[in-house]
Amino acid sequence: MSTYIRFVLVVLLLSGQAAMFGDEPVFSGPQLGEKLPPFNAKGVFGDLADKDIELVGRSAENPVLLIFFHERTRPAFGLTNMAMKYAVSRKKDGLQSSVIYLTDDATETRDWLGRVKQNLNQNVTHVISSGGLEGPGSYGLNRNVTLTVLVAKDGKVTANFALVQPSVQADGPMILKAIVDVTGGGKVPTIAELAGERYSGQARMKGNSGSSDAKLTSLLRAVINKQAGEADVRKAAAAVEEYVSKNRNAHREIARISNTIVNSGKLSNYGTETAQNVLKRWAKKYGAAPKSSDRSTEKQSTTAPEE
Predict the structure, then answer these.
(1) Rounded distance, CA 13 to CA 170, Å?
(2) In the structure, what pLDDT confidence band is assigned to residue 257 with cuts at 50, 70 and 90?
(3) Which domains does the chain have, with CATH numbers?
(4) What is the DSSP string of 90-130?
(5) Helical pair 230-245 and 273-286, crossing angle rounded to 10 deg
């Protein structure tokens, strides 16, 4: 391999334009500086359901975010939800955002999307590609990746991420920066900042837990965030414990909530394994929720925050 080619590959890898599969770089879709071709796909939800939609063509001059969903995995969902959550906040800057599902069985995929609709951001466009697993023929997508993320402006690609093993922590910051760069600049949000609130489309913890303590609710969200790393979960748990130590009502709430979750038989639905161990520890540490003759408190104790 020539020195020049090695140099180009290093630049692409460092800029997020190529992934590695074993010892080989992986490419998918139009590359940096190439034209973003328009293509048609079928809408999934609302007024766009079953309608042919032309993506890119009419808004070629606008900033564009396209996420091609090759494979259904939890990391792929986590990264897509995170990126689209931020993308919605830049809609005012003209950003056009779409998730394109690649499949050889459009009917099955449409039915599946209907079942998981509540977990998807409804403020972006969801479509099913008419090109099967290969996607639009003009895009040259790679079937061996899990996600292909394209960011473009003025009809040309400004960033391309071919992701074999998507990761919120590893890939998220680069994707967020690429979005910021095409929408007028500004501060790039951290993953922790985006994780401070639940992804759009998911149930709010306050509504499910019955907790009226907004700060405790916010702190708990960070603990049971499924995309949080072990260190992040422990840091978030420490923040909860510090807050609870200074607030008697919060102490009662964390006892009620942790016991409800642990005894619900659905502990595995809440965050990572580290978060689940934290919840079990809290249930023992803080004890059973104090009994109360208040009927509303008894009613609240039948529900718990869900992840």
Answers:
(1) 13
(2) confident
(3) 3-186 (3.40.30.10), 205-300 (no CATH)
(4) TGGGT-EEEEEE--S-HHHHHHHHHHSGGGS-TTSEEEEET
(5) 20
Which one-letter amino acid corresponds to residue 42? K
Residue 107: Cβ within 10 Å count: 9
Which of 235, 282, 274 lies closest to 256 in space, CA to CA? 282
Q: Which of 173-182, 189-198, 252-261, 263-272 has the lowest mean pLDDT?
A: 189-198
Between CA 173 and CA 183 the distance in angstroms is 15
Q: Which residues pair with 149 in a beta bridge?
A: 67, 161
Contact of 247 with 215, CB cutoff 8 Å: no
CB 168 within 8 A of CB 186: no
pTM, to two decimals: 0.59
Using CA atoms, how far residue 148 sits from 70, 227, 253, 263, in Å, is 8, 19, 42, 40
Query: Cβ(119)–Cβ(231) under 8 Å?
Result: no
What DSSP character marks residue 187?
P
pLDDT tens digit sequence for 15-72: 444 554 444 678 999 999 999 998 999 999 988 988 998 888 666 678 999 999 999 8
What does the pLDDT read at residue 201?
31
